[in-house]
Design a protein that fits this description.
Number of helices: 5
Organism: Neogemmobacter tilapiae
Distance between the termini: 59 Å
Protein name: FxsA family protein
Strand content: under 5%
Keywords: Membrane, Transmembrane, Transmembrane helix
Number of strands: 0
Helix content: 55-70%
Length: 147
């Protein structure tokens, strides 16, 4: 029920905003805004997606986990998708999601829920030896590293 209600209200809010704003500024201005935010969404997706991949590669080369950069890039792509979708509410949400402080805040929240902090953490290395022991009655497994 928590997901169903917003899914039902979202289109109703969008229709109400179209009628209200379209009645005040006119049909052609409304269409121009919708087409303009569509073009902006395409531009944002191309810019944010490519930029996030480049920053992630640079972070990997420097030996850092690129989680924060990928998070920002992902939210930038989501913002672009929201801008592409027709509607004033989705456009406002997409524009808000383009703000770097909002992206950082959301990326930090998502990373903390996933257990990471957006920083590189040193792994604990335990030195040891292992031996494979075959099940009784089975033929010994062949070691492919010696071929």
């Amino acid at each position: 029920m928590q997901i169903l209600l917003p899914l039902l209200l979202w289109p109703l809010i969008e229709i109400g905003l179209f009628v209200t704003i379209g009645g005040r500024i006119g049909l052609w201005a409304t269409m121009a805004i919708i087409l303009g935010t569509f073009a902006l969404g395409i531009f944002v997706i191309r810019l944010q997606g490519g930029g996030a991949i480049m920053r992630a590669r640079q972070g990997l080369r420097a030996g850092q986990a690129p989680t924060q950069d990928l998070g920002r890039g992902l939210f930038g792509v989501i913002a672009g998708i929201l801008l592409i979708l027709p509607g004033f509410l989705t456009d406002v949400l997409g524009l808000i999601l383009l703000l770097p402080p909002v992206q950082s805040l959301l990326a930090g929240a998502v990373l903390s829920r996933m257990g990471g902090q957006g920083t590189t953490r040193s792994a604990t290395i335990i030195d040891g030896e292992w031996h494979r022991m075959d099940e009784p009655g089975q033929a010994p497994m062949r070691d492919i590293t010696k071929d």
